[in-house]
């Protein structure tokens, strides 16, 4: 599984998603509750960028219709979204946040 650098750890502010594109895949990188998560940036309900939504309690909320996705599993907590969003493995090396988009975690 190939990890690529997504951003610097020091560039991430708590609960403020950062959108990056890795191998053509849009990814929202989020530091929340002391951990870093990588979740596909597109809502599973419609083509909306999740990184423009709010983060709270390890969940990211889609700003359009309000479904929240667990940053650990990608599962929606409520309607209208019913399908999970892919989440990806993250590794921290020094100040580098590395993400593998070739395999969903
Ligand atoms: S587009 Fe995200 S919940 Fe509808």
Automatic annotation (TrEMBL):
Task: Look up keyword Iron-sulfur and say if it applies.
Answer: yes
Tagged with keyword Nucleotidyltransferase: no
Gene3D superfamilies noted in UniProt: Rieske [2Fe-2S] iron-sulphur domain
Keyword annotations: 2Fe-2S, Iron, Iron-sulfur, Metal-binding
Database matches in Pfam families = Rieske
The coiled-coil segments of this chain are none
Name all Rieske domain ranges.
4-99
Q: Which GO terms describe its molecular function?
A: 2 iron, 2 sulfur cluster binding; metal ion binding; monooxygenase activity; oxidoreductase activity, acting on paired donors, with incorporation or reduction of molecular oxygen
Q: Which InterPro entries match?
A: Rieske_2Fe-2S, Rieske_2Fe-2S_sf
Q: Which PANTHER family does its entry note?
A: 3-PHENYLPROPIONATE_CINNAMIC ACID DIOXYGENASE FERREDOXIN SUBUNIT, FERREDOXIN-RELATED
Q: What is this protein called?
A: Rieske (2Fe-2S) protein
This chain's source organism reads Streptomyces solincola
Q: What is the lineage of its organism?
A: Bacteria, Bacillati, Actinomycetota, Actinomycetes, Kitasatosporales
């Amino acid at each position: 599984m190939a990890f690529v650098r997504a951003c610097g750890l020091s560039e991430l502010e708590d609960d403020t998603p950062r959108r990056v594109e890795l191998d053509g895949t849009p990814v929202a990188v989020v530091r929340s509750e002391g951990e870093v998560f990588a979740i596909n940036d597109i809502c599973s309900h419609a083509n909306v960028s999740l990184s423009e939504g709010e983060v709270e309690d390890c969940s990211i909320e889609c700003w359009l219709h309000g479904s929240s996705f667990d940053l650990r599993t990608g599962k929606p907590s409520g309607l209208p979204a019913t399908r999970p969003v892919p989440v990806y493995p993250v590794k921290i090396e020094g100040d580098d946040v590395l993400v593998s988009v070739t395999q969903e975690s």
